[in-house]
Amino acid sequence: MLIDTHCHLDAREFDEDRDALVFAAREAGVSGMVVPAVEALNFAVVRETCLRYEGCFPAYGIHPLYVERANDTDVSLLRDWLKCQIEGAMPPVAVGEIGLDFYVAGGDVVRQVHFLREQLKLARDFDLPVLLHVRRSVDQVLKHLRRIGVRGGIAHAFNGSRQQAEDFIRLGFKLGFGGAMTYPGSTRIRGLASTLPIDAIVLETDAPDIPSCWLAGGRNTPAELGRIASVFAELRDLSSLEVQVATSANVRAVLRLP
Q: Under the phi-then-psi rule, with left for phi > 0, alpha for psi from -120 to 50, and beta for the rest, what region is 18?
């Protein structure tokens, strides 16, 4: 069965039909979903979502595009939340979604870097992997990872070079491929998905964001992971079963899932 390593199942876009979406995902062969938080205000919602649906695993962090509305005390709040949850009924599998985003113009880069560094320190202290947002910021994120070592994780929606991919792999990271890989024009991403070591790759939807080519810009859902996996299988000349086995094993290894 497949594991969606990045699915915002708690998003408001799913409020009207979340049960049906989870059922459809199960029917499409998706047995697990990693649900990352984006700010302190949705930590509890992420937790409740994961408690409600079997096979869902929470991650907690402050997304780079949310740091400008975050409080300066939110890192301390995250530390307390992790400490409380790690021994609870639904322990976090990672710190995330964290990182840097230099695609959106006008962002507070200094504040993004501050939150990234402080959250990397929390991941190190709690011995948790991280779910990284690296849009237009791969080298900068790698720089901070080299300074603040963590126990690996996933570079979500990877869109870097082969050298950057190899740098992440050396640091113990898996690379997330999803909707962008389905576009025939995404030659660089498809080339990486085709040729990188298969034990370095995991699959994701980023639902409700990054829709696959067949959605024509419409709402993305976790059920699309089945077709994403089929595209990946075709690129690698693998069977569906081989893709399921390999990518699920990679997720379990890096996030220590059961």
A: alpha
Angle CA 139–145–150, to nearest 5: 150
Instruction: Provide the pLDDT for residue 106.
Output: 81
pLDDT band at 107 (very low <50, low <70, confident <90, very high): confident
Q: What is the pLDDT of residues 136-193, one digit of tens each?
A: 999 999 999 999 999 999 999 999 999 999 999 999 999 999 999 999 999 999 999 9
Domain extents for the chain? Answer: 2-255
Q: How far apart are CA 206 and CA 222, in angstroms?
A: 8
Domain 2-255 has CATH 3.20.20.140: yes
H-assigned helices in 148-224:
162-170, 187-195
First to last CA, the chain: 13
Spatial contact of 95 and 119, defined as CB atoms under 8 Å apart = yes
pTM of the predicted model over 0.90: yes
DSSP, residue by residue, 126-145: HT--EEEE-TT-HHHHHHHH
